[in-house]
């Protein structure tokens, strides 16, 4: 009999992504403001919101988007957020996870490159 070896691979998700029941949000953080963008099932627009840097406001926004998806006939079973590690990195992830939100903190020197030259300043993006 052959023996199969299981090993941890951080590049592979252990949970399948069901796009019809998952809100996916990304956060760009500064010291005083957070810019949150999301894919919300059943909502045609791509929500984008600038918030004060406060965890309660973020959770309220995620729940509002969950309610919008529910009104569009989509039952949300999973909320996932990702953001770059920084001043608010790890305590916020623990806080969100304690409130049933999956949080992924991305190391700033990850292997994925971002073309900073094409990024718009947060101040030029309208609130939604």
Structural class: alpha/beta
Summed up, the domain count is 1
- Using the coordinates above, name the CATH class: Alpha Beta
Molecular shape: globular
The separation of the N and C termini measures 59 Å
The topology string of helices and strands comes to EEEHEHE
CATH-assigned fold name = Nucleotidyltransferase, domain 5
Report the major sheet.
5 strands, mixed
Number of helices: 2
Strand order of the largest sheet: 3-2-1-4-5
Q: State which percent range the strand residues make up.
A: 25-35%
Report the CATH superfamily.
ATPase, nucleotide binding domain
Low-confidence stretches: none
Mean pLDDT: 82
Gyration radius (Cα, Å) is 17 Å
> Which bin fits the share of residues in helices?
10-25%
DSSP strand count = 5
State the CATH architecture. Answer: 2-Layer Sandwich
In words, what does this structure look like?
- This protein is of the alpha/beta class and 128 residues long.
- The chain has one domain: Nucleotidyltransferase, domain 5 (2-Layer Sandwich), CATH 3.30.420.40.
- It has 2 helices and 5 strands; from the N terminus they run E-E-E-H-E-H-E.
- Strands 3-2-1-4-5 form a 5-stranded mixed beta sheet, covered by helices on one side.
- The radius of gyration is 17 Å and the shape is globular.
Summarize the structure.
With 128 residues, this protein is α/β, with parallel strands linked by helices.
């Amino acid at each position: 009999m052959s023996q199969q070896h299981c090993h941890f691979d951080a590049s592979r998700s252990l949970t399948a992504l069901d796009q019809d029941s998952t809100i996916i949000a990304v956060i760009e953080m500064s010291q005083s403001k957070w810019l949150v963008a999301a894919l919300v099932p059943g909502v045609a627009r791509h929500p984008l919101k600038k918030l004060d840097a406060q965890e309660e406001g973020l959770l309220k926004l995620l729940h509002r988007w969950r309610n919008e998806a529910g009104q569009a006939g989509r039952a949300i079973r999973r909320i996932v957020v990702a953001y770059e590690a920084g001043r608010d990195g790890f305590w916020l992830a623990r806080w969100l996870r304690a409130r049933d939100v999956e949080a992924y903190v991305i190391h700033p020197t990850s292997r994925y490159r971002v073309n900073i030259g094409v990024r718009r300043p947060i101040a030029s993006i309208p609130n939604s």
